[in-house]
Amino acid sequence: MLKVLSALRLSYLNSLKLTARRSNFSTECLYDESITKFISENTEIVVDHNLTPEIKLRLFTPNCRFWFERPEFWPFEDPYWAIYWPGGQALSRYLLDNPGVSLGKSVLDLGCGCGASAIAAKLCGANRVVANDIDSVATLATCMNFKLNGLESPVCVTDDMIGSDPGNFDLILLGDMFYDEALSYNLHTWLEDCIKTHKSQVLIGDPGRAQFEELAFQSRLKKLAQFELPKPVREENYGLNCSSVWAALCKPRHLSGHESF
Ligand SMILES: C[S@@+](CC[C@H](N)C(=O)[O-])C[C@H]1O[C@@H](n2cnc3c(N)ncnc32)[C@H](O)[C@@H]1O
């Protein structure tokens, strides 16, 4: 049974890869009717119990089969997009509370997952939104969530952009991306380049994960906001009580005359 599932998963993933058009970055959103149906059937539309009740999202809830099912039965990559992470929640809340931050901007949501921060930026009038996730099922879920909120699909990129020149974005969003040591290290170096080369504004949502707090980058971060997590989010993320939004500065705080980008 497991072998069949693995083969299914591989063939799905290969077909996903083939649908992507190759350019610098592939910017075609996967559309696959069977996967769309699968996502609809295995998620629930959630409008509350998180920091942004204005945004509707298809997520796993206790009413969904895969909330309890053994993970090996899930036929795709780990469904990180089916969870609305505390870092992403804080970042999206901050964007909605401060619409001027994304108004008229070109925005990259790197590691978009369910796409909530990209949606928040678009709802606030971002000019162009690129949703990037190396999991093409996540970008499909993001497109479904854009539609759910009455928005046109964003530009989707499924390549790993970390380490490459992403192009000229006014604003780069990172919701809960510091959950893995190697990823955190790579992000750190790449963000420095993005800020130096393009003067991009970088906003990070993080609930105090160890890999984030240990960043050499810490002296270049300024906390913009902190949000207490709602009870259901605290219960799902044992030990986390709040989540914060940070801006990355051009220079370390002690050398920075003014604390903007
Ligand atoms: C912890 S989840 C956060 C999702 C979303 N930002 C949120 O806060 O709800 C991390 C996401 O990053 C994606 N990811 C991991 N490595 C990545 C990379 N190198 N480039 C783009 N996305 C990546 C994963 O597939 C996953 O969807």
Automatic annotation (TrEMBL):
Give me the reactions it catalyses: L-lysyl-[protein] + 3 S-adenosyl-L-methionine = N(6),N(6),N(6)-trimethyl-L-lysyl-[protein] + 3 S-adenosyl-L-homocysteine + 3 H(+)
| GO molecular function annotation | protein-lysine N-methyltransferase activity
Q: Which residues cross the membrane?
A: none
Q: Is Methyltransferase set as a keyword in this record?
A: yes
**Keywords assigned by UniProt?**
Methyltransferase, Transferase
Q: Which Pfam families match?
A: PrmA
Gene Ontology cellular component annotations, sorted alphabetically? mitochondrial matrix
The organism's place on the tree of life at top rank: Eukaryota
InterPro entries named among the record's database cross-references: Ribosomal_L11_MeTrfase_PrmA, SAM-dependent_MTases_sf
Which CDD domains does this one have? AdoMet_MTases
Output one GO BP term. methylation
Keyword Transcription regulation among record annotations: no
- Name the family the entry cites: Belongs to the methyltransferase superfamily. ETFBKMT family.
Instruction: State the protein's name.
Output: Electron transfer flavoprotein beta subunit lysine methyltransferase
Query: What is the originating organism of this protein?
Result: Hippocampus comes (Tiger tail seahorse)
Q: What is the lineage of its organism?
A: Eukaryota, Metazoa, Chordata, Craniata, Vertebrata
